[in-house]
Amino acid sequence: MFNSICFVLSGANSKISSKSGNGLSSSSSSNSNSSYASSSSVPITPRSEGEILQSTNVKSFSFSELKSATRNFRPDSVLGEGGFGSVFKGWINEKTLEATKPGAGIVIAVKRLNQDGFQGHREWLAEVNYLGQLHHPNLVKLIGYCLEDEHRLLVYEFMPRGSLENHLFRRGSYFQPLSWNLRMKVALGAARGLAFLHSAETKVIYRDFKTSNVLLDSNYSAKLSDFGLAKDGPTGDKSHVSTRVMGTYGYAAPEYLATGHLTTKSDVYSFGVVLLEMLSGRRAIDKNRPTGEHNLVEWARPYLTNKRKIFRVLDSRLEGQYSIEGAQKAASLAFQCLLTEGRLRPSMEEVVSVLEQLLEIKNGGKKNQVEQKIHAQSFGSGSQRPRMRSLEDSASAKVAYPRPLASTLFE
Predict the structure, then answer these.
(1) Backbone dihedral region of 250: left (phi > 0), alpha (psi from -120 to 50 degrees) or beta?
(2) How far is Cα 129 from Cα 122, in angstroms, rounded to an integer?
(3) Which of 253, 272, 271 shows the shortest CA–CA distance to 262?
(4) Active-site positions?
(5) Domains by residue range for the chain, with CATH
(6) Can you tell me the distance from the alpha carbon of 295 to that of 330, in angstroms, rounded to the nearest whole number?
(7) Other C-beta atoms within 10 Å of 167: how many?
(8) pLDDT tens digits along 89-146
(9) pTM for this structure?
């Protein structure tokens, strides 16, 4: 349990707030996941900042050490930027964790928070608390932190392929479309990360699941990052945690938006949105789309359970990479995760089970005549579709680090 961090998250990141308190900014069955689960013992009583920092198994860096590791935070070392500040590329010795020259040792990602007061510090401390104690293959590894004067920094393992958001939505020679198999692999990895957080031993609600927070390593294994908005799950006989609304517009569950009641099923809804983005190649919210297609969930929902119409939703760049059965199962899973009534949504353990089955389905084979006919009816002539190679065939492609979306709901 992580009740010890509750005080940290109360009121975090309150940059925009409406009169109602909800702010909008535009911009237990066993499965393979259980074998990955591991977390250190966590006290159940509230802890002070000092106790949080002392109990973590991560290094406390000095500001001068991180200046040296990042070449004084040079602009050409920037990996990404967001509301929190900037992420810089750096190098440290793998054994001693001391700063090294560029190209020597291991690569790290150093997040330097903007100096915007106590609220940013709360998120920084929450991240140290959670990632300093939780360890799982599908959570990004926190190596250390810096708390010195006004400086707040976090040091992570470097994720060479950047964010899922970049691969889905950015265009260019460095960002070829993810193949169907890679999308399902990423979805499964992210689902395992959430399932671990929701487990009886951990009971953490992630609260900000979105494509920019899913990072990819060199093998396209997904890892969840940015735990600044994470919150302890309900305890005892409580069904939910009451909070003011936080998260990102387009990903937050409807019942959470309406009531502020947060449950693990809130994360399941957010996962459904991301899965739908992966299936469609469309953003959750896109005002550049035609009228009626701005909100991805609202537009796609009617097609997800129709076997002949789901191809209107699927990314045309994926043609020929999936089986009909696989496409239907994936669309059905997204639909279940996006059910309006939270209690009817599957658990993340159940989501993991379905995705594991999806990966076992033989994909990429030639479609039979019926499948080809459905594609022709759904998409029209295939001759107009551009041919683009998959990222599976471009392992050496250069990938930028995540640039988080600006559209966020704040307390």
Answers:
(1) left
(2) 10
(3) 253
(4) 208
(5) 39-157 (3.30.200.20), 164-410 (1.10.510.10)
(6) 20
(7) 25
(8) 999 998 899 988 888 899 999 999 876 644 577 788 888 889 988 999 999 999 999 9
(9) 0.77
